[in-house]
Amino acid sequence: MSVFTLPARARAGRSGAAVAAISILASAGYLMANLLPAFLDAVRTGLGLSGTAAGAIGTAVLLGSAVAGAAVTRAAGGAGRERQARIGLLLMVGGFTVAAITGSTRLAVAAAIVGGAGSGMALTVATAAMAGTRDPARTSGIALLAVALSGTALYTLVPLLGGGRLATVGVMAAVGLGALPMVRHLPVAVAPADAAVALGPAPHRRTGLLLTAAVGVRSVAMNALWAIASGVGTDRVGLSAETVSALCAGCLLAGVVGVVVATSGGRGRSRTVPLVTAVGAGGAAALMSTFAPRGGLVLYAVGLLGWNASCQAVTTYVLGVAAALDERGRWSALAMSANTFGAACGPIVGLSALGAFGAPTTGTLIAITAALCALPLAHAAHTASAVARDTAASTHASAPVERISIPPQRSARQRTRVALPADQTPSRPPGAGRLRDRRRRHERSQAHPKVRSRVRP
């Protein structure tokens, strides 16, 4: 009996509930960054603060989110993933609830920072969980689409609720509360066979650190451009505040287009060239929006929309690269924390550069920074592609096999033989016995010529 083998599937597919849980958790974790302009306005009017003070509070909340997210990176990639997600969402709900209803400025600020820290923990867990799905790049794309669409919906909902601190910050708490039941659907963390691997640092340490640093620096530059976009549009290009607001709202839809383009390349393809292309497009868009002359609506609009589309595309590619470097999601979580850090520091850097150098020079600095970040990002993408190929090859070679038994080959005479019961003899056609006797007599006559005449032809 012959045996041949078929390789078993190396990785089980994840259910739609897991992708939905990741998307909802990511939307809740990224809510503070999405609603930052509304949050700053609510804090400024609700607590009677200046614009500078409100900006400082927003920066502190986002920094707390980035620090808390980075602190739980290892736990988010291990067995404590669900527990960290629940703790983060509870901190988010409690902190933002207190910040929405309290009349004390200090308590509101402290509670908002606690809520931001909780949202950072939730975002880190969601990002780490993306690496545990069958197609991390596609999962990250779906999650980023959910982030963009939920941000658009909440921007529409907050004014309908009356605006202000209670509505804006209260919506953040409500979203965190609604995400709690989805935690149990998160994919199980990948468990390494070697305990030392589970306790040790993430693999490909040098490449992962380069990736994280590049993401952080680029996030500072891109969020700096976002911070000065409104001022450039009104002061330099001469557009009305309503036109600039409409363009900023359109940036959310442009971000959706960027995510769709980034996820349409297919699973398993190299991301090096698309990633570098998206980074270069973002730098070119920064130059277009900041060099737009007075009355240059088209140039300014194309630059602003192209910038946001490239930002979301780069984020999608980066999450796929980070997931390939470590399937437990630790580099993915650190990259997203670095992205949040850039969202916190970008407005300060952008506004300071705009006041000191003007819009064209600031745009040039942003474009140069993006170009420099393309080098480590390309190196990380190339390394991730090599790691993915090696992992696929080793998994195919060492995967458990399924044995399939095949009966031995039989001759043509054996294949045509029909099995009959023991008490039944095969039937013969009429005349078969007479033909057999004549054939035997003929054979004997050929062997003995003396009896040939006795045989009838």
What would you say about this model in short?
The chain has 18 helices and 2 strands.
Can you tell me about this structure?
With 457 residues, the protein is mostly helical. It folds into 2 domains: 13-189, Growth Hormone, Chain: A (Up-down Bundle); 205-390, Growth Hormone, Chain: A, CATH 1.20.1250. The protein is 75% helix and 3% strand. The chain has a two-stranded antiparallel ribbon with strand order 1-2. The two termini are 50 Å apart. The model is unreliable at 1-14, 193-199, 401-406 and 451-457 (pLDDT under 50).
Specify Rg, calculated over alpha carbons: 34 Å
Report how far the terminal alpha carbons are from each other. 50 Å
| Percent range for β-strand residues | under 5%
CATH superfamily name of the largest domain? MFS general substrate transporter like domains
Mean pLDDT, to the nearest integer, reads 79
The number of E-state strands comes to 2
- The CATH topology of the largest domain corresponds to Growth Hormone, Chain: A
The class by helix and strand makeup works out as mainly alpha
Low-pLDDT runs: 1-14, 193-199, 401-406, 451-457
- In percent, how helical is the residue content? over 70%
Instruction: Spell the H/E element sequence.
Output: EHHHHHHHHHHHHHHHHEHH
Which CATH top level class of the largest domain fits? Mainly Alpha
What is the name of the CATH architecture of the largest domain? Up-down Bundle
The domain tally reads 2
Number of alpha- plus pi-helical segments: 18
Shape: elongated
